[in-house]
Amino acid sequence: MECTEILQRLRSLSNPEAVAGLARFGISVKQAYGVPAPVLRQMAREIGRNHTLARRLWDSGIHDAKGLAALIDDPRQVTEEQMERWARGFDSWAVVDGCCNNLFRMTPYAYRKAVEWTRREEEYVKRAGYVLMACLAAHDKQAKDEVFTRFLSLLQKGASDERNFVKKAVNWALRQIGKRNLRLREKAIETAREIRKLDSKAARWIASDALRELTSEKIERMLRKKQANRLPSKKR
């Protein structure tokens, strides 16, 4: 399937009401068709992994095409230079989250970019750093606890950023790290309590929201059950 053909198909699925909905959620609609996410995922399944096509779709600048590009690109072929180039094209939280969750977290550069991007000033690039932390915490089951412990100090540093899309990403990462296991839950709770002391409205919101979830009985039960399931059964 050629890039032009796919763009035409996306255009044919344009929904003005959906585009208006995107705008209400703070998503850039300068070039958007409002194609639903399930439709994009179905298209991605039909297309399969295609690195070259993904780059062409991204270069179109169309919101829906960028989302599709992240779904079909091959993380094994993604370079660090490409990640930086796409980061310069971030124009909404939805594009950021789609790229990080569907593609970037599976590249060899994910952990390094997570750290690097949290030090950047551009709102969406900085968000991407924290979103990568959240996605890695949720999906990389083999990662050591120490990796996420180091992330916690970066979350504390970023918690005073009052920008909406940054503070929500910090909160997301903090909660996801705390939900990996009981040990990280305790460290995330400690971090949240330190964040709560900061003289920042954003920090207080981040801490309050994270503590509400991480200290709940539901999360504790879930993590205790997960830990019990991992323990080797005793010999009879």
Task: Explain what the structure shows.
With 236 residues, the protein is mostly helical. It has a domain at 110-229: Leucine-rich Repeat Variant (Alpha Horseshoe), CATH 1.25.10.10. It has 14 helices and no strands. The protein has helices at 3-12, 16-24, 37-47, 51-59, 63-72, 80-88, 93-102, 110-118, 123-139, 145-158, 164-178, 182-196, 201-214, 217-230. The longest helix is centred in the middle third of the chain and has 17 residues, at 123-139. The N and C termini lie far apart (59 Å). The relative contact order is 0.07.
Distance between the termini: 59 Å
How many strand segments? 0
Low-confidence stretches: none
Element order: H for helix, E for strand: HHHHHHHHHHHHHH
CATH topology name of the domain at 110-229, in short, is Leucine-rich Repeat Variant
Note the beta-strand portion: under 5%
Q: Give the averaged pLDDT, no decimals.
A: 94
CATH architecture of the domain at 110-229: Alpha Horseshoe
Number of continuous helical runs: 14
Please report the first level of CATH classification, the CATH class of the domain at 110-229: Mainly Alpha
Helix content: over 70%
By CATH, the superfamily of the domain at 110-229 comes out as: Leucine-rich Repeat Variant
Judged by helices, strands and strand pairing, the structural class is: mainly alpha
Q: What's the overall geometry? A: globular
Please tell me how large the radius of gyration is.
Answer: 19 Å
Largest beta-sheet characterization = none
